[in-house]
Specification:
- By secondary structure, the chain is of the alpha/beta class.
- The chain has three domains: 3-91, Orthogonal Bundle (Helix Hairpins), CATH 1.10.287.70; 110-234, 3-Layer(aba) Sandwich (Rossmann fold), CATH 3.40.50.720; 261-334, 2-Layer Sandwich (Alpha-Beta Plaits).
- It is 49% helix and 15% strand.
- It has helices spanning 3-28, 35-47, 61-91, 93-108, 123-132, 144-150, 166-171, 187-200, 216-222, 230-243, 245-255, 325-334, and strands spanning 114-117, 137-141, 157-160, 179-182, 205-209, 226-228, 262-269, 292-298, 304-305, 317-324.
- It is elongated.
- It starts with a helix and ends with a helix.
- 21% of the residues are buried.
Length: 335
């Protein structure tokens, strides 16, 4: 029995025995005392506080027998409830349950966040990078050890559970999330979660980890927007480090500085944005936020590198920018 059911069972049992005792006294004395007096008599009998009787029981054989039965069985239920609550406190289950509920309430307030399924060797650095970019992240992980490692990430929200279960994805806010990243070691689990996520949300962006390249077409067909193979990317990186180390160094410096506060990012401009129709220099991205505009893309057209100040912002424009993380976050809110 889980903690929630145990708590409900204890509360219902205590409520039933108090109700049974109060109604019993009321029926024995044929409604002559007030019901509140019957309730009071039941409470002081079960708690054995030793206050005086508000209902004259002495001399009434039925009332005396009923009181003995009430105390005998009622005290057993009360003691069971106290021992259960004490055990929950000592074992930390109750505090964990309350912490879980608080976290779920925080997750319910999120919008356009990212869900990461799996907090293992791939998931941990992934979460760290997202948080550094000021993104809101919810970790969905079943292994407690992986969760403990990921807790080093400040203010991490997480759900301990199986990502293949629809209920956990819904609790993680998949209907409000901007994207879900599946980085589980099992390709079969990745395929199943990809299909489930696409069924639950048609608009969400799905990135899935893959080990077996033969499954790539199936993942794409299941609904993945992009499929990433760590083995393939690792191999390409090692080859680049060997034959063009300076180029790799330069690209790393552009993507993230050694200080950890510079990033290349993108800002997507919606069709109803107030910036549509304005020149690029009028957006304030360069002067106000000190951002470097590397490129621009309208819809699915080719990327225009280094657009000039006279570039006109159009609906569904994506700007590729470089700058400090805090300035990028402020600029995204402006659009």
């Amino acid at each position: 029995m889980d903690i929630k059911k145990r708590l409900y069972f204890v509360l219902i049992a205590v409520f039933c025995v108090i109700t049974w005792g109060s109604i019993g006294y009321y029926l024995i004395f044929k409604g002559q005392p007030r019901f509140v007096d019957c309730l009071y008599m039941t409470i002081i009998s079960l708690t054995t506080v030793g206050y005086g009787e508000v209902i004259q029981i002495s001399g009434n054989l039925t009332a005396e027998i009923f009181t003995m039965v009430l105390i005998t069985f009622g005290m057993g239920i009360i003691l069971y409830g106290i021992s259960t609550l004490t055990a929950l406190f000592i074992e930390g289950e109750l505090s964990g349950f309350l912490r879980k509920k608080r976290m779920e309430k925080q997750i319910q307030k999120l919008n356009n966040h990212y869900i990461v399924c799996g907090g293992g060797e791939t998931g941990l650095p992934l979460i760290s990078e997202l948080v550094k970019n000021r993104e809101q992240v919810v970790l969905l992980e079943q292994d407690e050890e992986n969760i403990e490692r990921c807790k080093n990430v400040k203010n991490l929200l997480y759900i301990q559970g199986d990502a293949t279960e629809d209920e956990n994805l819904i609790i993680a806010g998949i209907h409000r999330a901007a994207g879900i990243i599946i980085c589980l070691p099992s390709d079969k689990d990745s395929l199943y979660i990809t299909m489930t996520a696409r069924m639950l949300s048609e608009k969400i962006r799905i990135i899935s980890r893959l080990s077996n390249q033969k499954l790539r077409p199936k993942l794409i067909k299941a609904g993945a927007d992009s499929v990433v193979s760590p083995n393939t990317i690792g191999a390409l990186r090692m080859a680049s480090e060997m034959i063009r180390p300076t180029v790799v160094n330069f690209l790393d410096s552009m993507l993230r500085s050694s200080q950890g506060n510079l990033r290349i990012h993108q800002i997507k401009i919606a069709g109803n944005s107030s910036k549509v129709g304005n020149k690029l220099e009028d957006t304030g991205l360069q002067k106000k936020f000190n951002l470097l505009i590397l490129g621009a893309r309208i819809g699915k057209e080719e990327i225009l590198f280094n657009p000039g100040n006279s570039f006109i912002i159009q609906p569904d424009t994506t700007l590729i920018i470089m700058g400090e993380v805090d300035n990028i976050a402020k600029a995204k809110k402006m659009f």
